[in-house]
UniProtKB/TrEMBL annotation:
Keywords: Hydrolase, Metal-binding, Zinc. Its cofactor is Zn(2+). Pfam families: Lactamase_B. Gene3D superfamilies: Ribonuclease Z/Hydroxyacylglutathione hydrolase-like. Residues 190-209 are annotated as: Disordered. This is MBL fold metallo-hydrolase. Residues 193-209 have a biased composition (Polar residues). InterPro entries: MBL_Glyoxalase_II (IPR051453), Metallo-B-lactamas (IPR001279), RibonucZ/Hydroxyglut_hydro (IPR036866). Residues 12-191 form the Metallo-beta-lactamase domain.
Length: 209
């Protein structure tokens, strides 16, 4: 399986490129910025992008949605609760002195338990509201790999002081949806370094208050 991380934009978002090497089907997760760099990586790996997936709708994670959708023809997927963030991204970014293009609306909505297929690979959607109401994680059980967006970080959790955020809801999402996963599942967050479920279960201060 192809799994590549590209750090994009001024806020250092982890954009992920996944691909099934037999079918050449691929997925881009959280293309926040640096569209040309992402497209160059897609070309280098020779994958056909089937899905563009947003773990949530904040502007720093969705800035290349429109460009990548136009260039690849891929389906854009996000949770319906975060559509207002996508279509108003330019205004949100402006508050931070940044420029981002508004995203088109999703072609389909992510739902809890939804299965996305890339050739032989199956990615399960876990709805984990708290950072935003539409926040989702992506779980590849066979690869023991979990993409957590801004829900769970190494030794931290997502902020909940933005519109739609709830700390209690976030902690409940993490404990009920993510912590039951195997200890050796590798956690790939939306910013910063990777971790494991076992590491976070044992040492994340926000989960052991």
């Amino acid at each position: 399986m192809l799994f590549e991380t590209i750090v994009v934009g001024p806020l250092g978002v982890n954009c992920f490129i996944l691909g099934d090497k037999q079918s050449n089907e691929g997925m881009i997760v959280d293309p926040g910025a640096d569209c040309d760099m992402i497209l160059a990586a897609v070309s280098h790996f020779g994958i056909q992008v089937k899905y563009i997936v947003n773990t949530h709708g904040h502007f720093d994670h969705i800035g290349c949605n429109r460009t990548l959708k136009e260039k690849t023809g891929a389906q854009l997927l996000a949770h319906k609760e975060d559509v207002p963030f996508l279509v108003n991204a330019a205004r949100s970014a402006q508050k931070y002195g940044l420029t981002v293009e508004n995203s088109p609306e999703p072609d389909a909505f992510l739902t809890d338990g939804m299965k996305l297929e890339l050739g032989r690979r199956v990615i399960e959607v876990l709805h984990t509201p708290g950072h935003t109401q539409g926040g989702c994680c992506l779980y590849l059980a066979n690869e023991k790999l979990l993409i957590t967006g801004d829900t769970l970080f190494a030794d931290s959790v997502g902020r909940t002081d933005l519109p739609g955020g709830s700390h209690d809801q976030l902690i409940d999402s993490i404990k009920s949806k993510l912590m039951p996963l195997p200890d050796d599942t590798v956690v790939w967050p939306g910013h910063g370094p990777s971790s494991t479920i076992g590491q976070e279960r044992s040492f994340n201060p926000y989960l052991n208050e």
